[in-house]
Design a protein that fits this description.
Number of domains: 1
Radius of gyration: 17 Å
Number of strands: 11
Number of helices: 3
Order of helices and strands: EHEEEEHEEHEEEE
CATH superfamily: Electron Transport, Fmn-binding Protein, Chain A
Shape: globular
Length: about 170
């Protein structure tokens, strides 16, 4: 897919009520941009799953997050970059849950890191201010590696009038 090009939405009728329509990518992207909390799923070296909440910023058609180099998620991603990020509305009868599949790739270029840092501060406030040093974030908690996940596949689960949409990139 080329930058700025939108993926095609495919409705899965097996998990959708009669008459449901696929969710527009523009709505899903807006939810990915505005969500406050995301859940990252990675795989431990022994194959067991690891899930943790984190903050994320949508920038340049990817979700970006940071983590300390010794944290479990960073160690998992060093061995296997494939991951899933989820976000949504924690209610059964309303909202849109999103599942983003892709590979978490390190972001180390100064210009890109400064843009992600500015995105964190704009979205989450001044307490999430990061300096950029030596290919990573530097903040009160120490050094933080930055990763970007460009979606390969995204699933959208609409609740209320239930539907499942898949977008492939």
């Amino acid at each position: 897919m080329r930058p700025g090009e939108e993926p095609t939405a495919e409705l899965d009728p097996r998990y959708s009520v009669a008459g449901a329509a696929p969710t527009d990518w523009s709505e899903a992207r807006e939810r990915l941009e505005s969500a406050e909390v995301y859940w990252l799923s990675t795989v431990r070296p022994d194959g067991r799953p690891h899930v943790t909440p984190l903050l994320s910023v949508w920038l340049d058609d990817a979700l970006h997050f940071c983590t300390g180099p010794q944290e479990r998620k960073a160690r998992n991603l060093a061995a296997n970059p494939n991951c899933v990020l989820t976000t949504g509305h924690n209610a059964l009868g309303e909202g849109l849950d999103l599942v983003v599949e892709g590979a978490a790739l390190p972001v180390t270029a100064g210009t890109a890191l400064r843009r992600v840092a500015a995105g964190y501060e704009a979205k989450y406030g001044s307490e999430w201010h990061f300096e950029v040093r030596d290919g990573a974030f530097a903040g009160p908690g120490g050094r933080a590696l930055v990763f970007g996940v460009r979606p390969v596949t995204v699933f959208g689960f609409r609740k209320g009038a239930y539907s499942q949409t898949r977008w492939r990139f």
